[in-house]
Design brief:
Low-confidence stretches: 406-411
Number of helices: 18
Structural class: alpha+beta
Largest sheet: 6 strands, antiparallel
Shape: globular
Number of strands: 12
Mean pLDDT: 88
Strand order of the largest sheet: 2-1-12-11-10-9
Distance between the termini: 87 Å
Radius of gyration: 26 Å
């Protein structure tokens, strides 16, 4: 690593790089932490935490998303080292459920995400558990996942499949075994010994201590988010904890120093090694995944929840760690369609590692500004085209009837009817998706990308209006023929 060449000049380059990226990626606020070995090299906040102009600082807390899975894994491994949890025991031992699946899935399989659970099947729980805000939310959500996934026995060996359900069940196991709530356990056994004073297990705590304001993008413009999905307590162990760049720097120090930060140890060096080791290369360790940045092996994890995104990387051979937070997220942040876990902060964190190693910064594809340039251009063109076709149909169908053109409507009743059906199909499907839970991913998309979903709904209404006028045209045509 080339940090030694001049920390001042390196971090000036980092600041300049982040300033460029914040403009290109339209980020309202960002927080950065860089650590090496047991030393914090750089901490800084950039931009605004909220619309009042409050600046982001290293102590400003953000939603950490799925980075919290490694915290849940650490809690499980702590209890395992105390002899309270057997990683290779069936989860039936710790979860009160009568289902056969609990007898064939082990705690280790949950940690390594090889239980066979799927992520898409968790979306309905995410949507329904928002209404459960009491202290039993985790238990209710965990038992709901048990009901969903454990009714049937599954094979012992399953390939890696990412699923929040694994870590919700692990959080519930921590709660069951420790006798504390999941949140209290994490505060007492991880946050406190690592001096993570700006880290919180509930939204109310974080908001009371200066949580950055989450944002969504509406056609590229950042809009503060006030809705209910910022915090889902039943999913807390899988992705709803809050922390700051400074605190997560402490956490990364412990990850790179055998579980130690200053004079406190949260896990043995063997436990840390186990957390960071995938059972099969290219799968999932315990809260961490491996990757490469310019052929440099790294361990990392992205995190995303409504209005927040984050990325952390560890470069083992350099004992280097980077954490990046931002307070805006929508679906367009992801790299579609192949790497949806790669988000804007992923590219920024990777770019910082490149800078620290004096390597060329890897390409990040289209920036958010460029993506929205393309998206907004297509939206504009399609909207103008549809408005024009609706206008033309209205003019032909609602204006004075010209009998000389009646042969055009003779065209083909079958064609006209098929067009009518096509015009109404979109509205039918949108209503079905919006009013039912048949496809939960539709509702997730509505939360994360409300601008495009709203536009799509408006377009289907216009198509249905066009279809209605086609019906009028058909009726009038037949009436003229009879005359």
């Amino acid at each position: 690593m080339q940090v030694e060449r001049s920390e001042t000049s390196v971090f000036s380059e980092v600041d300049a790089y982040i300033a460029r990226e914040m403009k290109q990626q339209r980020l309202p606020g960002l927080a950065l932490g860089i650590v090496q070995g047991d030393r914090i090299l750089y901490l800084r906040g950039y931009g605004q935490a909220d619309s009042t102009g409050r600046p982001v600082t290293p102590e400003t807390s953000f939603g950490i998303g799925s980075i919290g899975k490694s915290i849940t894994a650490m809690a499980v491994l702590q209890l395992a080292e105390e002899g309270e949890i057997d990683l290779d025991a069936p989860i039936q031992r710790y979860i009160p459920t009568p289902y056969n699946g609990a007898e064939s899935i082990t705690v280790r399989q949950l940690l390594n995400q090889t239980s066979g659970f799927t992520q898409i099947s968790t979306f309905s729980n995410t949507l329904s558990s928002i209404d459960i805000q009491d202290q039993d939310a985790l238990e209710k959500n965990a038992l709901s996942y048990a009901d969903k996934f454990l009714k049937k026995a599954v094979q012992t060996e399953q390939p890696f499949k990412y699923s929040n359900a694994n870590y919700v069940l692990l959080g519930y196991i921590v709660q069951q075994v420790s006798g504390q709530s999941y949140g209290d356990y994490v505060k007492d056994h991880i946050f406190a010994p690592l001096s993570m004073q700006d880290s919180y297990v509930t939204l109310d705590e974080a908001a009371a201590h200066g949580l950055a304001k989450p944002h969504r993008r509406i056609f590229g413009y950042n809009v503060p988010y006030e809705g209910p999905y910022i915090y889902i307590p039943g999913d807390a162990p899988a992705g709803y904890l809050y922390s700051s760049a400074k605190d997560m720097s402490h956490y990364l120090v412990a990850q790179m120093n055998g579980g130690r930060f200053e004079d406190n140890s949260v896990l043995s060096s063997e436990g840390i090694r186990l957390m960071q080791t995938e059972p099969v290369p290219g799968t999932y360790a315990m809260g961490w995944m491996t990757d490469q940045i310019n052929h440099l092996p790294v361990i990392g994890q992205p995190g995303g929840s409504i209005g927040f995104q984050a990325q952390t990387y560890i470069v083992p051979e350099q004992q280097l760690g980077v954490i990046v937070f931002a307070n805006v997220l929508d679906a367009i942040d992801a790299t579609w369609p192949n790497k949806t876990h790669v988000i804007t902060t992923t590219h920024i964190a990777a770019g910082i590692i490149d800078l620290l190693n004096n390597d060329p910064i890897g390409g990040s594809g289209l920036s958010i500004s460029q993506k929205y340039g393309v998206v907004n251009g297509l939206v504009f063109i399609l909207s103008i085209w549809l408005l024009y076709t609706v206008y033309r149909t209205a003019k032909r169908c609602l204006g004075p009837w010209n009998p000389d053109r009646s042969h055009h409507t003779k065209l083909s009743i079958k064609i006209i009817i098929s067009r009518i059906i096509l015009n109404f199909a979109g509205l039918f499907f949108v209503l079905m998706l919006s009013m039912t839970q048949v496809v939960p991913v539709w509702h997730i998309a509505t939360i994360y990308q409300p601008d495009l979903i709203l536009w799509l709904k408006i377009m289907t209404v216009l198509m249905a209006l066009k279809g209605s006028m086609e019906i009028i045209r058909l009726v009038r045509s037949n009436g003229m023929k009879k005359l």
